[in-house]
C-alpha cells in the first residue's frame, strides 16, 4: 500500500468532490484518478477496495471538519452554561454548512453504508469515535447534559443539516434560532453530566 500521506489526502479530497457531485454510484477509483489528475491506478494503490475508499472518505471528512483551535480556546475560556453550549452547536453548524459538499458527501456515505456492511463497519467506527470524543469534551467542559443530550443534539443537528443542504421543508425559521431552541429544549435544564 502506498504511504504518502499528502497524496492520500489529495486523493480523498478528489474522492469527496466526485462523491458530492455524482453520488456513491459515480464514485470509482478511475473517477477519483481523473478528478485528482493522477495516472490511472493511483487511487487503487492507496485504497485497495471500494469500501476502503469510501471509509477513507468518511475519515477525511472529519479531518476537514476539525474545529479551529483558536475558536475552541475562545469558547472554552467561557464559563459552562446553556448559552455556551448553544455557541458550540452554532459553531458546528457553521463549520458543516461552510463546506456543504463535505456534509452532502457524509450524507451519501451514511446512505451507502446502509447497503454495504463493510462500509458500515468502517464508517460506523469513525462516527462512534467522533461521538465518544464529543461526549468526553462535553463532560470535561462541564456543559449542561451528558451523553444522552449530546446524542439528542447530534440527531437534531443532523436533521437540520439535511434540511439546510438538501431539499428543504422551507419552514421559514432562521437556522440560528433553530439551534438556540434545540439546545434550550434538549439540554437547557439538564445539569452537567446529565
Note the main sheet.
none
Low-confidence stretches: none
Return the average pLDDT rounded to an integer: 92
Number of DSSP helical runs: 10
Protein name: TetR family transcriptional regulator
Keywords: DNA-binding
Domain HTH tetR-type: 5-65
DNA-binding region: 28-47
Question: Could you characterize the architecture of this molecule?
Answer:
Pfam families: TetR_C_31 (PF17940), TetR_N (PF00440). The protein is built from 10 helices and no strands. The protein is mostly helical and 194 residues long. The chain is elongated, with a radius of gyration of 18 Å. The termini are far apart. The mean pLDDT is 92.
Secondary structure elements and pairings:
Blueprint: H1 5-22, H2 29-36, H3 42-46, H4 50-64, H5 69-76, H6 82-98, H7 100-113, H8 117-140, H9 147-165, H10 175-187
Helix pairs in contact: 1-2, 1-4, 1-7, 4-7, 4-8, 6-9, 6-10, 7-8, 9-10
Short description:
The protein has ten helices and no strands.
Which structural traits does this protein have?
elongated, DNA-binding, mainly alpha, 194 residues
Amino acid at each position: 500500500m502506498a504511504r504518502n500521506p499528502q497524496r492520500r489526502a489529495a486523493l480523498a479530497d478528489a474522492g469527496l468532490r466526485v462523491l458530492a457531485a455524482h453520488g456513491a454510484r459515480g464514485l470509482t477509483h478511475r473517477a477519483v484518478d481523473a478528478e485528482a489528475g493522477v495516472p490511472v491506478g493511483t487511487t487503487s494503490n492507496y485504497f485497495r477496495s471500494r469500501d476502503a475508499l469510501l471509509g477513507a472518505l468518511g475519515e477525511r471528512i472529519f479531518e476537514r471538519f476539525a474545529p479551529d483551535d483558536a475558536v475552541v480556546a475562545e469558547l472554552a475560556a467561557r464559563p459552562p452554561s446553556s448559552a455556551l453550549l448553544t455557541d458550540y452547536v452554532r459553531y458546528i453548524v457553521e463549520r458543516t454548512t461552510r463546506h456543504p459538499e463535505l456534509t452532502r458527501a457524509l450524507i451519501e456515505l451514511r446512505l451507502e453504508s446502509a447497503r454495504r456492511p463493510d462500509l458500515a463497519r468502517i464508517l460506523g467506527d469513525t462516527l462512534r469515535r467522533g461521538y465518544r470524543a464529543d461526549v468526553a469534551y462535553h463532560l470535561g467542559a462541564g456543559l449542561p447534559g451528558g451523553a444522552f443530550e449530546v446524542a439528542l443534539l447530534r440527531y437534531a443537528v443532523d436533521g437540520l443539516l439535511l434540511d439546510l443542504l438538501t431539499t428543504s421543508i422551507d419552514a421559514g425559521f432562521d437556522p440560528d434560532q433553530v439551534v438556540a431552541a434545540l439546545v434550550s429544549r434538549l439540554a437547557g435544564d439538564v445539569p452537567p453530566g446529565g
